């Protein structure tokens, strides 16, 4: 590794809503009341998280999706401007990101000031808005691979798609990046981003384009491409991180019943394929058996780690990072070393830091300074009781639960 010490930070689920779309009215206050996010405070919290990353000495930031509240174009532009400011303070800084389920083809994008829907973004718009981050950092986009192009052709034919939607399919936003883009230099960090968000007809629950789903999915074709990139990284003696928005395995027992949309919906389905590295394996098993040790995800708004061991005894850790707009306001710092003398490999130091203070502008235009973020969050954000009540009410419509024999389920447990 050219730099013996790589420092990076992970911020997730920033859920920025543009100030131009906010208003001190009944509709917006109702949205805040029933949402477990600090929307008004979001920009201030993001800036504070970036400051903490700088103080940690991080030159690189990873954001695993859900940059905006509901995919508003104005919100994406606001996030882009904030991240651009951070990178321009130090030209050696880089930000790597991927869309979340809120960010693309989201028809819930709303202007609370004028009480009407506002413009959302399409898949290609995402990469145009954040082009300044991608253009010098990406080694290869999945969408440029022959694997993707062949799959896209099959999908377009199967669903007889309109021309305007014919360029994207599941995994469209996946890509390979590297801390040191010079492939002649060995021992760097390769980053493989897998776009698990659903916004195309091949995986959308009703096979419709122009819509998004909360739940995610991982298509086998993107994994075919990913293992090729993993193999190439190994030849460079690189460490490999995989990043996605949705988790690949449950973070706790029976998560599929109560928080199922927060993992990929095909997490425990075995693929059928002529490739033995894909065939009869679940998605995370493919990553583990390819030598990946760390998968970083967001989406759940909770810090957590789940370990998976494949039948071949290969281990991988799915590490979730909480949201910058949800209690307890965490970010992660990761230091990577390769200066160990007793074996050939890498050492990783990982820690969680909470946003302790921040400043924001309230709906009246007043500058507010918060010195104790934890106390502020406990006082002003939904309690766990409120969150559970709202969630249970919405999950009552889940067919898995509504059709379940609860007594039998509890007895079997």
What report would you give on this structure?
There is one protein chain. The chain is of the alpha/beta class and 413 residues long. Helix content is 30%, strand content 20%. It contains 13 helices and 18 strands. The strands form five sheets. The chain has a seven-stranded mixed β-sheet, covered by helices on one side. The radius of gyration is 21 Å and the shape is globular. The N and C termini lie far apart (49 Å). The model is unreliable at 393-402 (pLDDT under 50).
Record keyword descriptors for this entry.
13 helices, alpha/beta, 413 residues, 7-stranded mixed beta sheet, globular, 5-stranded mixed beta sheet
Instruction: Give the structural class.
Output: alpha/beta
The major β-sheet equals: 7 strands, mixed
Helix % is: 25-40%
Mean pLDDT: 90
Q: Count the beta strands.
A: 18
Distance between the termini: 49 Å
What radius of gyration results from the CA coordinates? 21 Å
Shape: globular
Kindly report the spatial arrangement of strands forming the biggest sheet.
6-7-8-11-12-14-13
How much of the sequence lies in strands comes to 15-25%
Spans of at least 5 consecutive residues with low confidence: 393-402
């Amino acid at each position: 590794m050219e730099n013996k010490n790589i420092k990076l930070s992970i911020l997730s689920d920033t859920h920025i809503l543009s100030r131009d779309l906010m208003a001190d009215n009944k509709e917006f206050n109702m949205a805040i009341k029933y949402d477990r996010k600090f929307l008004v405070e979001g920009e201030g919290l993001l800036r504070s998280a970036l400051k903490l990353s700088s103080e940690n000495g991080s030159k690189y930031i990873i954001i695993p999706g859900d940059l905006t509240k509901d995919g508003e174009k104005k919100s994406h532009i606001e996030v882009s401007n904030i991240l651009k400011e951070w990178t321009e303070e130090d030209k050696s800084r880089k930000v790597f990101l991927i869309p979340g389920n809120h960010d693309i083809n989201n028809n819930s994008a709303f202007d609370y000031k004028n009480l009407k829907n506002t413009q959302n973004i399409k898949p290609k718009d995402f990469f145009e808005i954040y082009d300044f981050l991608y253009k010098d950092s990406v080694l290869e986009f999945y969408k440029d691979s022959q694997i993707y192009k062949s799959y896209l052709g099959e999908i377009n034919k199967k669903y007889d798609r309109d021309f305007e939607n014919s360029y994207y399919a599941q995994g469209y936003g996946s890509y390979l990046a590297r801390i040191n883009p010079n492939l002649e230099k060995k021992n760097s960090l390769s980053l493989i981003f897998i776009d698990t968000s659903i916004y195309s007809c091949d995986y959308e629950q009703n096979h419709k384009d122009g819509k998004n789903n909360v739940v995610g999915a991982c298509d086998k074709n993107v994994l075919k491409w990913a293992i090729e990139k993993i193999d190439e990284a190994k030849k460079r003696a690189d460490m490999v991180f995989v990043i996605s928005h949705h988790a690949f395995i449950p973070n706790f027992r029976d998560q599929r019943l109560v928080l199922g949309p927060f993992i990929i919906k095909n997490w425990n389905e075995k693929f059928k394929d002529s490739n033995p590295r894909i065939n009869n394996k679940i998605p995370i098993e493919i990553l583990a058996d390819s030598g990946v040790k760390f998968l970083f995800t967001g989406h759940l708004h909770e810090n957590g780690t789940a370990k998976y061991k494949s039948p071949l005894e290969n281990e991988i850790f799915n590490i979730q990072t909480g949201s910058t707009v949800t209690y307890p306001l965490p970010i992660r710092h990761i230091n990577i070393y390769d200066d160990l003398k007793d074996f050939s490999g890498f050492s990783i130091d990982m820690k969680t830091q909470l946003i302790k203070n921040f400043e924001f502008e309230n709906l009246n235009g007043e500058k507010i300074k918060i010195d104790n973020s934890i106390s502020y969050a406990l006082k002003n954000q939904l309690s766990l009781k409120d969150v559970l009540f709202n969630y249970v009410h919405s999950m009552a419509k889940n067919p898995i639960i509504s059709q379940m024999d609860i007594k039998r389920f509890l007895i079997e447990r």
